[in-house]
Amino acid sequence: MNESYWFLNSSPKEYNKLGENIKTDCLIVGGGITGLTTAYLLAKEGKKVVLVEADKIGYGTSGRNTGKVTCQHDIFYSKIEKKYGLDKAKSYYNANNEALNLVEQIIEENNIKCDFKRETSFVFTEKEDTIKDIKDEYRTCKKIGINCEYHETIENIPLDIKGAISFTNQGQFNPKKYIDGLAKAAVNLGLKIYENTPVVDLEKGKICRVKTREDNIIEAENVIISSHSPWYDGLNFYFAKEYAERAYLMVAVLENKLADGMFISIDDPSITFRQYNDGSENLLIFGGGDHKVGQGGTEKEIFDDLEHYGKEVFKVKDFKGKWSAQDNMSFDNVPYIGYINKREDNIYVATGFSKWGITNGTAAGIIIKDLIINNNSDYKDTFNPSRLGSYFSKDFIKENANVAINYVSGKLKIGSGDMPKNNGEGKIVNIDGKRYGVYKDDNGDFYIVDTTCTHLGCELNFNSEEKTWDCPCHGSRFDYKGNILEGPALKPLKLYGHGDNDVNPKLL
């Protein structure tokens, strides 16, 4: 897997993995911005908090983004107004604006050196036929009371912009430095962090019992699932109410300074970019080529296209890094934050941030803290995971039809009769009348895995750039050895000779 620029240029503290049974007031599963913010706020309230992370703190999407801390989320506000009304759109803004201000407050109170600064954020189009969408968004934003402006074009940007909206006084930072500082601040308040501690099961009850991969048990009065994709579903069918996308980012030296600000287009294909100074060089962070997990073109082609775009449009030359990230997309543009279902009031979920997890994830921390401490939140209804609007939409029907198509087509795949010839190559191969995924590593060794996804049984596709097996149905991802990289799957892939995969979704 390609490492993010933020990770390559950080020196994070390492935390031990859990090695014993423990008890706590609040257990948080997932060590990104959502989990750490929730932990920080609960610890400030005097709660005993434990956080477990399957990998390293911030290793997921929280450490793999552009570092935009903004309430401007594409053209969400007009869509939310159309579906739920202006009050809900305003509530969504208020939650994210409170989150933006909280990020700045946490940075100031804890002296976190993460290159935070206030900056203007722009959303734009280069196409005549989408100017109307920009203008509709602007009208909704003005009705909400957002400090924004409409622009016919943007100066000092090498694009033919037809229309744009700017939000003033937004923010940007180095996300990994922020995460590391936030983790330190939360630990100083009493938080216990355990890295390399994947969760494999949950037994619900007044006191929940959560089991780790090493068979340790964590007993907790409250469980917060902030692991990006809910590995425990609570019969709320999160896997059907959202879909997973891969996003691609690159960093290069920028020789010609652009207009100040953060930028994202609403066009297809979309482009996002901003400048970042690391103290010695002015860099361009840019990305695009988003696609559903397991359903896009080859990742090499996407990065090649991005590199060509950077050279042609922004005249960049010296590339410093490239990486991808995963986003869970809700069908109505609003995340699912709150009680995991209508019946269980001590299990909480935060997912479906639709690429805007820095502010939405921070807002999730505010909401969940309020629900635990006060049994209420100003934003409870807006982000309610059980809202009916998340089901009744054309997108819900379309995406789940797409899942069905990929499920069936995967089962009809015919594997090759030949093993991979080149090092770094992966393919579906027929062995003894059964399909297996075969990868040949750089040493010429073969890794053969059962490619039936352990979540709901879809057939996996090979990701040639990151050398992973990706699920086109619900976004689970596995490395070539079969280890889980992304949920909702809870079980790894079995190697050849070790039997069939254990398809076991945690729905109840």
From TrEMBL:
Which UniProt keywords are listed? 2Fe-2S, Disulfide bond, Iron, Iron-sulfur, Metal-binding
Give the molecular function GO annotations.
2 iron, 2 sulfur cluster binding; metal ion binding; monooxygenase activity; oxidoreductase activity, acting on paired donors, with incorporation or reduction of molecular oxygen
Q: Which Gene3D superfamilies match?
A: D-Amino Acid Oxidase, subunit A, domain 2 (3.30.9.10), FAD/NAD(P)-binding domain (3.50.50.60), Rieske [2Fe-2S] iron-sulphur domain (2.102.10.10)
- According to the record, the signal peptide region is none
Q: Name the CDD domains for this protein.
A: Rieske_YhfW_C
Question: Any keyword Cell membrane?
Answer: no
> Which GO CC terms are listed, alphabetically?
cytoplasm; membrane
Q: Which Pfam families match?
A: DAO, Rieske
The name on file for this protein is: FAD-dependent oxidoreductase
Q: Which organism is it from?
A: Clostridioides difficile (Peptoclostridium difficile)
